[in-house]
Amino acid sequence: MNARFEPWSPGFVADPYPAYRRLRAGGRVHWFEPTRQWLVPHHADVSALLRDRRLGRTYLHRFTHEEFGRTPPPPEHEPFHTLNDNGLLDLEAPDHTRIRRLVTKAFTPRTVAALEPTVERLAAGLVADLKREGGGDLLADVAEPLPVAVIAEMLGIPEPDRPLLRPWSADICGMYELNPSEETARKAVTASLEFSAYLRELISERHRTPGDDLISALIAAYEDEEGGPGGPGRAGRLSEQEMVSTCVLLLNAGHEATVNTTTNGWWTLFRHPGQLAALRADHSLLSTAVEELLRYDTPLQMFERWVLDDIEIDGTLIPRGSELALLLGSANRDPERFDRPEELDLSREENPHVTFGAGIHYCLGAPLARIELTAVFGELLREAPAMRLTGEPEWKPGYVIRGVHELKVEL
Q1: Measured distance CA(84)–CA(373) in Å, rounded
Q2: Cα separation, 113 vs 372, whole angstroms
Q3: What 3-state class would DSSP assign to 141?
Q4: What CATH number did the domain enclosing 144 receive?
Q5: How far apart are CA 107 and CA 100, in angstroms?
């Protein structure tokens, strides 16, 4: 059992929870020299700091790189940073407020609820294919195609183009890992350029011929704003770059949680046969089961924030310019917040997990993720009640976005 925080170790990635227990027992904040970050492992601190406006996903709304004591990214990485830095996830007020308000107009609860029949239809088709083959790779055959198809349908991306999306997304998301390599950065830059060019062409086409899709709705929200034409920041408008970055973020963030919760969740269920048997016997447990699987093996293990103004945690001064690593996976197993946190309890009623974040950056797609997870788990429980694992999975090397290479099953 590896009880050290070693995010590049395959053993740690496969099971980071012993290391989290050690961190929680050792205090509320820990300096981690390899990434020059402060690790925060407790639920109360993570929950509070996600809402703390002295922290930010960016610092560029207040400081230059030099003023903040940081080295600017290399010029050759610029296409990735242009794409990433104009998306909701890495913006702060007032730009975050303006863009989130516009995106929310096109991403209402009613819109999401209306997608439920589509999600269920897609899940049913994928599970039917898996059943017809007698099994296969749950990741490639079901977990990945479902959310990619849903978000592509939402965005109005033509079906023949959809195979492009997952590879672009995977290459871009590589940059969210700790200390990414230059090869990872090169792939992310290439994917950023290609994805951006594709979306600019699609946005231009939707300007000419609007459809019943999210890109058209974003354009409509943009054009409905008062104040005349202008760039970002004027009268609540969206720039074209912000629209491109928003669409990329919706794809990347809109499926990563669902993909990894589906596969990590089934891997968890297979290792807890009593809980799996209870769920198979009583599908009404599904709503609490989804929340418990999101808590028990968190798909996004870490969320990073910059310290914009000095803060103090448990007597330790964290100066401006520092970076916090909020350990969501550790917070979700904190015994100070959860009863029997190391146990999987699919009937757990009180479940204040932080898997979708908190504060202004709370996941906009959380309701859609829940619909997708409920649909795919429900369909597999109904149509593949005897599904079983055929081999222990191998984990991908990434720690921040954590998942398996494949999950082979038989029906």
Answers
A1: 27
A2: 11
A3: helix
A4: 1.10.630.10
A5: 10
